[in-house]
Amino acid sequence: MIIDISRTLNQNTPTWPGDTPFSYELSWSKAETGSVNVGQFTTSCHTATHIDAPYHFNDSGLTVDQLPLDLYVGDVLVVDVSTKGRISPDELKLVDLSNVRRVILKTSAWKDPSYFPTEIPILEPSLGQFFRENGVELIGVDLPSVDPLESKTLDAHHAFEANNIHILEGLNLEEVEAGEYRLTALPLKVEGADGSPVRAILETK
To answer: PANTHER family from the entry (predicted)?
Structure first.
């Protein structure tokens, strides 16, 4: 079974305050061209379900087109941390991360998908080292960011990069239970980009 864990992109999709909202419109209609509809869309790279490239927060970091694609396809463990306001290694110490390369944290904190959240759980930067020591290379969240919304230092982003852990944000996990799945969440091949929307799915094993 395939579970779509992407958020819908439309004119009502919430985005970071002040960032470029998503829009789609027809440039030419079939009536005008006589053969096809041709549309265009405009959006921030960090709207809805997306990956962060390290270049997003590090001028010397990898851009989207430089990322290893195998990170975004493969087995993943979904961990339910929906009762936690702060997520640290202590909350995950009982989770078996043996042979786990990808982890998705289900926080259930983004209650209304039509509005940008005003508060989200805190992911402690110490998770970076913890995940690296356990062999994790990709962290996904059902939040717009792995850092507090008001953060300018982006400590968790930098801690994950320092430990070679890549970031997938804005997942929709409402219909997903904790457990093992196969993830596909490929970014667009946009040269020089700091992030990219993805169509993220989970397949039951």
So the answer is: CYCLASE-LIKE PROTEIN 2, KYNURENINE FORMAMIDASE
pLDDT tens profile 151-181: 999 999 999 999 999 999 999 999 999 999 9
| Active site annotation includes 56 | yes
- 6-30 in b/e form (b: 16+ CB < 10 A) is bbebeeebbbeeeeeebeeeeeeee
Average pLDDT over residues 22-35: 98
Return binding residues: 16, 46, 50, 52, 157, 169
CA atoms within 13 A on the CB side of 24: 9
The two tokens of residue 132 are 């690296």
Q: Is the pLDDT of residue 41 over 90?
A: yes
Q: Which of 53, 54, 56, 196 is the catalytic position? A: 56
Binding site membership for substrate: which residues?
A: 16
pLDDT at 123 over 90: yes
Q: Where do the domains of the chain lie, and which CATH numbers do they carry?
A: 2-204 (3.50.30.50)
